[in-house]
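Record type: monomer structure entry
Structure origin: computed from sequence
Chain ID: A
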Amino acid sequence: MIVVLIGPPGAGKGTQANIFCKSKELFHFSTGDILRDEIKKKSEIGQKIENIINAGKLVGDEIIIDIVEKILSEELSRNNGILFDGFPRNIDQARGFDEVLKKKKQKIDYVIHISIDKEEVIKRIQKRQSEENRVDDGIDVLKSRIDVYLKETTPLIDLYKKQNLLKTLNGMQSIENVSNDMSKSIDKI
């Protein structure tokens, strides 16, 4: 089972992915966590990633696609599936993802879109920044991330809607209600 979870920064994707993956025994592919791990390792690629993220931009598609292909090879057979949290982020990544999935004889089963308004995004990110002190949650970086999301990620909603894969959830609800809605939306598991 392949599930894609999309939504703006601060929509609660990570929280919902953690809950859902534990209950359904899926591997949680968190783009942000994987990229932050590379930064912590201080690897050459980690330093490149850090500069890109701190500027409020998205990491290059080639780097992400390579990481996705590696994770699919390693984790698909060990779990009931993979939930992709924060990937794909744009149309080019979606095309690259489709190519990788075809090579692996897989397909996307569901795309869950957590929808929240911009004011709530800002409120949640500011709270997270104060609690976790994440460099990528600063107000200037946040505004850039929202702009990038609106420009590059929003077209995915139309793409997946046309493919009859998209299920949009109201992310303004409590964590529990969003989680329940997510479980009800995915009926194959």
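Annotation 1: The chain has eight helices and five strands.
Annotation 2: The longest strand covers residues 110-115.
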